[in-house]
């Protein structure tokens, strides 16, 4: 059991929740300049599959990863400003992708229109990372974990 809150008395068990009582993150959404083109690029070059591929404004694209548990939503609302992702520091927002071969994946994605923000490097904990920007400026982190989380 996971303790949340402060237990006022042993009779008050409402502050104890089991893990399955928490909500699950369903998706992360991004307002982007061209959801249709981005959806196609992410499917073709990052291996995502379409769960929803709307051709009607705002062109909502729900893309599913290979595990079937992570969704990325892309949309292009005309009445909402699109962030300037290309000028944002990667620590503000990035999408992280596991890679078995950073050098090969960097080369492949650059050939598909991505640009290198930070070349592959090994950081203090032993992880190998590279930072790219997709053709629309969103930062893509490629990572090979020294100690995988999953």
For the structure shown, list the relevant keywords:
single chain; 150 residues; alpha+beta; Signal recognition particle alu RNA binding heterodimer, srp9/1; 2,3-Dihydroxybiphenyl 1,2-Dioxygenase, domain 1; 2 domains; four-stranded mixed beta sheet; 2 helices; globular; disordered N terminus; Glyas_Fos-R_dOase_dom; VOC_core
Mean pLDDT: 89
Radius of gyration: 19 Å
- The span between the termini is 21 Å
Biggest sheet strand order reads 3-6-5-4
Largest sheet: 4 strands, mixed
Name the shape in a single word. Answer: globular
What amount of the residues lies in strands? Answer: 25-35%
Can you identify the CATH superfamily of the largest domain? Answer: 2,3-Dihydroxybiphenyl 1,2-Dioxygenase, domain 1
Please mark out the parts with pLDDT under 50 across 5 or more consecutive residues, or reply none.
1-10
Give the helix level as a range of percent: 10-25%
- What is the number of helices? 2
CATH topology of the largest domain: 2,3-Dihydroxybiphenyl 1,2-Dioxygenase, domain 1
* Name of the top-level CATH class of the largest domain: Alpha Beta
Into how many domains do the coordinates divide? 2
């Amino acid at each position: 059991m996971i303790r949340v809150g402060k237990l006022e008395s042993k009779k008050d068990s409402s502050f104890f929740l089991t893990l399955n009582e928490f909500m699950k993150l369903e998706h992360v959404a991004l307002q982007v300049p061209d959801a249709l083109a981005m959806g196609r690029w992410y499917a073709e070059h990052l291996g995502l599959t379409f769960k929803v591929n709307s051709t009607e404004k705002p062109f909502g694209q729900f893309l599913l990863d290979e595990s079937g548990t992570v969704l990325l939503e892309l949309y292009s609302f005309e009445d909402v400003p699109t962030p300037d992702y290309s000028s944002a520091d990667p620590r503000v927002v990035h999408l992280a992708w596991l890679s078995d071969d950073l050098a090969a994946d960097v080369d492949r994605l650059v050939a598909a229109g991505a640009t290198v923000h930070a070349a592959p490097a090994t950081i203090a904990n032993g992880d190998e990372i590279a930072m790219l920007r997709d053709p629309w400026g969103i930062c893509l982190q490629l990572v090979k974990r020294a100690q995988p989380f999953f």
